[in-house]
Write a structure and sequence with these properties.
There is one protein chain. With 430 residues, the chain is mainly alpha-helical. It has helices spanning 3-18, 23-39, 42-55, 62-75, 78-90, 97-112, 115-132, 137-148, 158-167, 171-177, 179-200, 211-217, 222-236, 242-259, 265-299, 301-312, 316-330, 336-353, 358-373, 380-387, 396-418, 421-428. It is globular, with a radius of gyration of 22 Å. The two termini are 40 Å apart. The model has no long low-confidence stretch (mean pLDDT 86).
């Protein structure tokens, strides 16, 4: 198949998304039109079994469960108390509460699986305190937007589940692979806050908190750490599947919500409605992605693209460098889920053909999606933190504040290219 035709179909799909057509509709239209153009109306008979198979896929049961887990922790007040505890321990570092922003985002990410939820939750708790204490709004918004991106890298991650379902890779291995990069990227963000704070000459620190009080606040960190331990421990030791570990996490979250005396029918109702909306959107997009995948596989698009790239003589390193630029540009115009489902069916076979480890490539894709969350003009986390800022200033503060963290992400991706064992070591020992 001509590469020009493939490119035309791809850009037609992007165009439909950019003019506001729903993501699922855009992908399904391209998949159906392409399939009918190649095979005629019999292609339609092939779609029904694909849709039935997707909707009966046990793996995808974990998506609404992980979404519900995040909703319970969000509405139970656990995030508020978690921020208080981390501020007591991290507030004395150069940069003060900016470190608490990153630490809270990392810890909440370890239970929510969503970047937008992480940025919104921690931002709502943090911004009034930051503004009251005179922190730079640009630095505050930047740290929250960047910290929120950790929601899809530190497991559990809905985006890793989407990648695993589209490429038939182990969700457990993807989750485990995200731990070390997630912790290292968190440390990199905090190191930048430390260095930039010292270099600016206006070092912000919080007042020291007595040791007894700091120890007392540690109890607020127990719920998210226990939930993370249950989910990841059950996966790592092979006790549970991804869906079963998510269910165990939900049970633990319900227990902590009950313990906080916030468990009520109204809270559960709000959690279930929000979970249904988010899960329905994700599962509809995944179904459309599988229709597109069917057209791609039957028409030989992946093979054609692989041969074309092979003809360019690119090495695996050259391909990854080209994809960094590709995703950086794409992330300026598409949201994370759109970017994943639209590109993985094409980029994944090419990367695997050139010898890239599939688990490593999954973490790379997630990192590129993280980058898209803080690159204007469609960086979702930029809009989230801008929308909840108390002083209602311009969005340029969020954009410029997040720029250094975008550079750090690119440099961190290059580090993972140089030392791929940072990703692959833990999954290899499962």
């Amino acid at each position: 198949m001509n590469v020009g035709v493939i490119s035309l179909a791809f850009f037609a799909m992007l165009g439909m998304m950019l003019v506001g057509m729903p993501i699922a509709v855009s992908m399904a239209v391209v998949g159906i039109v392409g399939g009918i153009a190649a095979y005629g109306t019999p292609f339609m008979d092939s779609i029904a079994p694909v849709i039935w198979g997707v909707q009966n896929e046990n793996l995808l049961t974990s998506i609404p469960l992980f979404v519900l887990l995040g909703e319970l922790l969000l509405r139970s007040g656990i995030a508020d108390r978690m921020y208080v505890a981390l501020s007591a321990w991290l507030g004395r570092m150069p940069g003060g509460l900016l470190h608490t922003n990153i630490g809270s985002c990392a810890l909440f990410a370890a239970t929510s699986g969503s970047s937008v939820a992480t940025a919104a939750t921690v931002g709502t708790v943090a911004l009034p305190s930051l503004m009251k204490r005179g922190y730079s709004m640009r630095q505050s918004l930047g740290s929250l937007a960047a910290g929120g991106t950790l929601g899809i890298l530190i497991p559990p991650s809905v985006n890793m589940i989407v990648y695993g379902s589209l490429t038939n890779n182990s969700i457990g291995k993807l989750f485990i692979a995200g731990i070390v990069p997630g912790l290292l990227l968190t440390g990199s963000f905090m190191l930048w806050i430390w260095i930039s704070s010292v270099m600016s000459g206006t070092v912000k620190r919080e007042e020291p908190v007595p040791l007894a009080e700091r120890i007392r606040t540690l109890q607020f960190l127990i719920p998210p750490m226990v939930v993370f331990g249950i989910v990841m421990g059950s996966l790592y030791f092979g006790i549970a599947t991804a869906a079963e570990s998510a269910a165990l996490g939900v049970m633990a979250a319900l227990l902590f919500t009950w313990q906080s005396r916030r468990l009520s029918l109204e809270l559960l109702r709000n959690c279930f409605i929000s979970t249904a909306r988010i899960s329905g959107m994700i599962l509809l997009i995944i179904t459309a992605a599988f229709i597109l995948n069917l057209a791609i596989s039957l028409t030989g698009v992946a093979e054609a693209m692989t041969k074309w790239v092979a003809g360019l003589g690119l090495s695996a390193t050259g391909l990854i460098l080209a994809l960094i630029v590709f995703y950086l540009v794409l992330g300026m115009f598409m949201d994370v889920l759109s970017m994943q489902v639209a590109t993985i069916p094409i980029t994944y076979p090419i990367a695997i053909a050139l010898g890239v480890d599939p688990i490593w490539f999954g973490i790379f894709i997630v990192l590129m999606c993280e980058l898209g969350l803080i690159t204007p003009p469609v960086g979702m986390n930029l809009f989230v933190v801008h929308g909840i800022r108390p002083d209602k200033g311009g969005i340029e503060d969020a954009i410029w504040g997040a720029l250094p963290y975008a550079v750090i992400m690119i440099l961190f991706t290059l580090l993972l290219m140089a030392v791929p064992q940072l990703v692959t070591w833990l999954p290899a020992h499962m």
